[in-house]
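Q: Protein A?
A:
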Amino acid sequence: MRRSSSLTSPSAVVITVGNELLSGRTVDTNAAWLGRFLSDRLGIEVDLRLTVGDEQNAIATAVAQGMARAEIVIVTGGLGPTPDDLTREAVARALNRPLLLDQGLLDQLTGRFRSAGRPLPDANRRIAMVPWGAQLLSNPLGTAPGLLMDEQGIQVVLLPGVPREMNAIASEAAAEALRRVFAGRLPDIRSRELHTTGVPESALAGLIGDAFPSGFGGVRLAFLPEETGVDLRLTVTGGTASVGRLDEAEAQLREVVKPWLFEAPETGDLAEAVLTALRTRGLRLAAAESCTGGLASKRLTDVAGASDVFLGGVVAYSDDAKEALLGVERKIIDSCGAVSEEVAEQMARGALMRFGAEVAVSLTGIAGPGGATPDKPVGTVCFAAVHGDQAVVRRSVFPGNRDGVRQRSAQAALALILHLVDGRLTPPLD
């Protein structure tokens, strides 16, 4: 089995388990998340990624292959109570360890179900069968804990396949355990993230490259693009002595990206920045949505504590609903079209009155694939944000499929609110 030098950081093999991953019915986001997390937060590089189905031989073979290659093998998926959850059995067999009942874990599971007014299902008892010598990794969001086993110096980590549970265990219990095992071999990594929206990655890279052709003096910059914007991660290795360099690089970068920068320290979501700006000014918000079907409202209510700012929203998908629920004039719909700046503004003013809010936002558009006209192609979306007598109205044409248009539209609507109430976020850069 491979052993790395005690002076170098360990590498990892990531194994994802599930027939749904092999068939393509489920996108393997877990492997991507683990790769970023291990590298960015622990300084552990992934040497190999494997995906196998729900079959004991395949899982055991993958684990053996991983152990021959790296000092850390992480397996995600197959820890639940159903018959196709076979990771425990497969790994126990690969490591030649018996599965034993963990009475403490069983008591914990029984108590958890009892507090919910239900008996523990027989199937869930499987969760309490643990390979001999395994350390339990606390799962704050589910029933199945993670498991950590030291096999002749190789750390085998088992995590649930449910992304939010996997993320929670990896970020806390598993990370703490790996730092302890590899103390002195993992680099001290410091990082900062800046959130931007309304500017394409290519344009952003050009602006930053022109301003800092030689980079940031040992501070690494990574671009993390999504449909809703581009996050910028600054990373430096070297402990407290490197914090000054990180501070300087962040300050320099902020100046370049300032027109598209927003602050969302808890969630990284523009909705958080919008709610904070409105809360600071004592303003309440309402929404009127058509093509996004409530997506902007969902983004807002995903942020804890949104209820003191966000009063509610109306999904007015049909022309009749726009007229009946938001007071949009039929003659405006007939003359300008449902996807128009005029209708968007009337939708926003209708939401403002219906909810008694101080600020309202609206959007109406063509997400596709049908409904386009020569002057309004797929991706055409009209927005309005109003605050008292003030109104900002825009039209954009977004690229992408139906989901991409909807995602970009919700983001643009949120950006328009922030632009209206405090002048931040310039119009999108083409």
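Q: Protein B?
A:
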Amino acid sequence: MQEAQPLLIFPYNGNGIEALDCIGSAYQFIGFVDDTPQKRGVDPNGYPVLGREAFAQFSDASVLAVPGSPSSYKNRKETIQGLGIAEERFAKVVHPAAHVSPLASIGNNILIMAGVVITSNALIGSHTCILPNTVIHHDVVVGDWVLIGSNVTIAGNTVVEENCYIGSGSSIMNGLRVGSGTLVGLGSNVIRNIVAGARVAGNPARAIEKKFC
């Protein structure tokens, strides 16, 4: 039986805490890493929260970096690259109750939560987080640095370019392109291509004012 790989999770946030349910037997969780001094110590569940020195202290540990929210997703690339972690050190964490087709491809620094289904020939880029019960259909391409909420459906042959945020409960029709840096609001129904940097929501999804996000 293969020995579990030590794992550090950055930062101490909602995605990081949820990742604990996903690591299965492949990883041995060591602790969280967070830049906020007030968060460091031991959390209410008894897990250590450490500073960035932990990356050097536990140099043999893999790293799962899952920062980002609807308000900060555009900074994910800068934040993760700023950790100075070698690409091959990043983890691939897939919940045992997720299904990734053997014909699909996933990158590094991946978090795939329970109930996710990724079907044939889908390409999932690095530094991507996919929340529970999302379905990504055949021949979909998801770029790097993307956050995908729960209960999202992305139909076949769709391209989601890098650094997007796809809100929970949204559906994206087949054959579309979602431009880089796009935010798709909760429960949206995307039936047209979306230009880079757009913020859309609704059924059908339309451009929204920034103040409503």
